[in-house]
């Protein structure tokens, strides 16, 4: 087996509009080998993702993005997803979603868009894009997923992921899975890495198809090294501020939820902080560390207590 070189990759969680020129400058001038974005670039209106896509496309680094549920579907489409709509309304929604996704890919270029795909431009790494537009608890935006990828069930999604992964030579490449919402099977508490924080009873809000894919791959001795996603924000709605576990290592797999929202924020002393996650491969081992830049600048300085607590909110199983 060839020795795999050391790597450093920046993971940028759900942006939701929080990106500025200092981010573009910092990442362009950094020593990162690549950037991976977990989607949800804009805020509530789907069109708000497009100017953010254009801004992040200016970063002078190799970049990859998995589209999130806010990146193409309109507000009405998301309501139809949750509560249902007429066949006419769903056809109109599909037409608009297809149009927005074409624009998103155009505005993102040269950043590569992931989704049921394999990218092998990072040395010694295969990125496997999972189901795009995922929002938990089912096959989200079914008409689009069926038309674009031929997927009509969660079981079909799992089979496609397994089929794609079989094409990867794990002897020379490490498998990294990139999703918008994370896999099921990692906890049912509101504070768990993809636990539900908007229901009193909490529960596991991870994607079943992705969770089953990870489980089956592990049983076949073809487990991924890292699984990256976002969607479930670090800020818990259960009343605990920034309480979500963001990193889990289980059965030799590193799971990372990069969605610290907002990723740009101020502390009580007026300092502005920018969040991302630093993913590294050193001597063949993968690790992830939360990074906080003060006023958009890298440096050695003490973090406020609440950020130190966030950094340590991890779990080894």
Instruction: Name the structural class.
Output: alpha/beta
Rg, rounded, reads 19 Å
Number of helices in the DSSP assignment: 8
**CATH architectural arrangement:** 4-Layer Sandwich
User: How many strands?
Assistant: 14
Instruction: Output the CATH topology.
Output: Purple Acid Phosphatase, chain A, domain 2
Organism: Leptospira langatensis
GO molecular function: hydrolase activity
InterPro entries: Calcineurin-like_PHP, DevT-like, Metallo-depent_PP-like
Domain Calcineurin-like phosphoesterase: 7-234
SSE layout and pairing:
Layout: E1 7-12, H1 21-29, E2 34-37, H2 49-56, E3 63-65, H3 75-83, H4 87-108, E4 112-113, E5 117-119, E6 125-129, H5 142-149, H6 154-165, E7 174-181, H7 208-219, E8 226-230, E9 247-250, E10 253-257, E11 264-266, E12 272-282, E13 285-294, H8 305-311, E14 314-316
Parallel strand pairs: 1-2, 2-3, 3-4, 6-7, 7-8, 8-10, 9-14
Antiparallel strand pairs: 1-12, 5-6, 9-10, 11-12, 12-13
GO molecular function, one term: hydrolase activity
InterPro entries: Calcineurin-like_PHP (IPR004843), DevT-like (IPR027629), Metallo-depent_PP-like (IPR029052)
Domain Calcineurin-like phosphoesterase: 7-234
Describe the structure.
The protein has 317 residues and is an alpha/beta fold. It has a single domain (7-316), classed as Purple Acid Phosphatase, chain A, domain 2 (4-Layer Sandwich), CATH 3.60.21. The chain is 27% helix and 23% strand. It contains 8 helices and 14 strands. The strands form 2 sheets. Strands 1, 2, 3, 4, 11, 12 and 13 form a 7-stranded mixed sheet that branches. Strands 5-6-7-8-10-9-14 form a 7-stranded mixed sheet, with helices on one face. Helix 2 (49-56) runs parallel beside helix 4 and helix 6 crosses helix 7.
